[in-house]
Design a protein that fits this description.
It is a single chain. The chain is mostly helical. The protein has one domain. The chain has helices at 2-22, 38-47, 49-62, 66-78, 80-91, 94-101, 120-139, 142-170, 220-236, 240-252, 254-257, 261-295, and strands at 299-307, 310-318. It has a two-stranded antiparallel ribbon with strand order 1-2. The model is unreliable at 1-26 (pLDDT under 50).
Length: 319
């Protein structure tokens, strides 16, 4: 009977997750016939920061399904003990299999500046995005440049929304491992790791890095990985690779993240939403900028090139 309940709860979590992701699909097709310069990509990304902030705050409140979404979230939290225990018993052990196939050793173990940020799955994502953007610059591939810049923006906004704001306000403690076993005395079994999914509002202020106290809801890594997947799936019109990478990255260190199931689901949905907002606002600004350029009598373009055998910046005027 208990296994049946676990299975049904697991099915509910999966259904809520996929419903949330399905609603986050873009509502328009960007105009790819108009090319954007490398500086234009960065400019349009910066100009939409305020639009992103407004959308992230206001869109969920204006959503006609706000009450239904609140019920879904309440259901996730109410069933968190059962679903998370099932998750600990049957899903978290998968990281052993993932680690036997995929490895993420330190990229810069001897560099004191890069070592703190370029380690584990996070480091590979940061390095991969940087390499993709650099390759886009060298080859003139607009999509690679766009994906690199928008991914960085989505990750930064994920950090601000999930880690700095929501974790600090909600202050939920992470689950003990294993749930229900009060005899364990290791780090993940003692306070602030708890056995109740209702331990909210433990005041603290999040800064760089993360501590165990009151930092459960939502999962920042789930937010970050799915924001990455959301942006890249839209830019390259391919869901399998970005979401496959995001899922692999999340499973690789799933024990280390140590979250209630509702926190993982919420993080994934928030990340998908942030990626959607970043992509949509960028392309709206891009279209407006293209329309403005058409109305001007002349255009300017700054680039790096070779003139009379000397490499340096150049300014091109066209009319």
């Amino acid at each position: 009977m208990q296994k049946l309940i676990f299975k049904r709860c697991g099915s509910l979590v999966a259904a809520l997750l996929f419903c949330g992701l399905a609603k986050a699909q873009i509502q328009f097709e960007p105009d790819r016939t108009i090319k954007e310069s490398r500086f234009g990509i960065i400019k349009n990304t910066i100009l939409t920061i305020d639009d992103d902030a407004k959308a992230i705050v206001m869109r969920p409140l204006k959503n006609p399904n706000l009450e239904k979404n609140a019920v879904k979230l309440f259901t996730l939290v109410a069933t968190d003990y059962m679903t998370t225990k099932l998750f600990q018993d049957h899903i978290e052990p998968l990281d052993v299999y993932v680690r036997s196939v995929v490895s993420f050793p330190h990229l810069f173990p001897n560099n004191r500046y890069l070592r703190p940020v370029a380690y584990g799955v996070d480091g590979y994502m940061y390095t991969g995005v940087t390499a993709m953007y650099a390759a886009g610059l060298l080859t003139g591939n607009e999509k690679m440049q766009e994906a690199g810049v928008l991914t960085v923006k989505a990750v930064v906004e994920s950090y601000v929304v999930s880690h700095l704001i929501l974790k600090s306000v909600i202050g939920r403690h992470r689950p003990a491992r294993p749930l229900g076993d009060y005899t364990q005395t290791d780090r993940d079994s003692e306070y602030p790791f708890v056995h109740s999914p209702l331990d909210f509002f433990n005041p603290h202020i999040n800064v760089l890095g993360s501590k165990a106290y009151g930092t459960g809801f939502p999962s920042y890594h789930a937010t970050m990985f799915f924001a990455f997947a959301s942006v890249n799936a839209k830019v390259f019109d391919n869901k399998w690779i970005p979401y496959g990478l995001a899922t692999t990255a999340l499973l690789y260190d799933i024990r280390g993240h140590n979250h209630w199931v509702s926190e993982l689901v919420a993080g994934a949905v928030i990340g998908e939403f942030i990626g959607k907002v970043v992509y949509e606002n960028y392309h709206k600004q891009r279209s407006e900028s293209a329309t403005t350029r058409k109305k001007r009598k002349f255009n300017t373009d700054v680039s790096v090139g070779q003139t009379f055998g000397v490499m340096g910046p150049s300014l091109t005027l066209s009319w």
